[in-house]
Amino acid sequence: MANTKNVNPAAKKYARSGIIAAVVVIIAALGVWAVSQSSRGGASVASSLNEVNADAASGADLRLAVIRMDAIQTDAKALQDLRKQKEAYETKLRDELTKEQKALEKEKAEIEKSQDVLSREALQRRVVDYQNRVTQLQRELTERAQSIEVSFQKALNEIQEKHLDPIIEGVIAKKNLSLVIDGRFARTGKNVQNLDITNEVVSALNKKVSTVKMEKPKGF
Questions:
Q1: Exposure check for the chain: N or C terminus, fewer CB within 10 A?
Q2: What pLDDT is stored for residue 64 in this prediction?
Q3: DSSP type of residue 4
Q4: CA separation for the pair 139, 31 (Å, rounded)
C-alpha cells in the first residue's frame, strides 16, 4: 500500500477528482407567457369596450367535453412503446457507464500504487491523463443522454401532430363540440354523461397507430 504520510501533491490533486456515478439528463420545456402594459395615455376603458359586442355563448348552445391528457400518455399503445424504446437506450447508456466506471476505478488504484515509484513529473502526467479521461467520459455521456431525450421528444411530436391531434379534431367534429377542457384542471359534478372523451380518443389512437419508431440517438 502507498504511504499515506508522504502523499505526493499531484496525488492529492488526483484524489479530489471524482468518478462519474450516474448521468441523468431531463429536458423540460417551460412556456412562459408575458403580458406587458404601456403606461402611456390612451383610450378610456369605456370607449375601448365599444369594440366588444354583447354577444356570448349561451348554455343551451354549448357542447362540452373533458380529455385527460395524462391518461392518454399512460394508456396509448404508441406512447407506451415509445417509452420502452427510450428506456432501452437509457439502460444501454447506464451499462456502458458502469463499465467505464470500473475501468477508471482500476486506473485510480494503479496510480495510488505507483505514487511512490514514479517521479513527480511522471505521476503528474498520469494524473492529468486520468482527469482528462473522466472529463471526456462525462461530456460524452451527457451528450448521448441529451440525444436520447431529443429523439424521444421528436417521436412524441410526431405522434401528436400526425396522429393524436387529427383524432381529437375528428372527435370534436363528430360530436359537434364547442369546447374541450383538459381534465387535469377540470372539476365536474355527478351524473354528467358523455363528458369525458379520453377513452374514446385512446381507442381511436390505438387503432390508428400502435408504434412509432424512435430515431436512433447520436452515439448509439
A1: N
A2: 86
A3: S
A4: 28
Classify residue 177 as left (phi > 0), alpha (psi -120 to 50) or beta.
beta
The end-to-end CA distance of the chain, in Å, is 40
Q: How many CA atoms lie within 13 A of 153 on its CB side?
A: 10
* Residue 77 neighbours by CB distance under 10 Å: 14
> Which residue is associated with the grid cell 482527469?
131
pLDDT tens-digit series, residues 179-218: 998 887 777 766 677 888 999 999 999 999 999 999 999 9
Residues near 154 by beta carbon (within 8 Å), at least 6 away in sequence:
214, 215
Contact by Cβ (8 Å): 178, 57: yes
Based on the number of CB atoms within 10 Å of its own CB, is 107 exposed (0-12), middle (13-18) or buried (19 or more)? middle
Distance CA 126, CA 130 (A): 6
Classify 150 as helix, strand or coil.
helix
In DSSP terms, 67 is beta-bridged to: 182
| Predicted confidence band of residue 42 (pLDDT cuts 50, 70, 90) | low
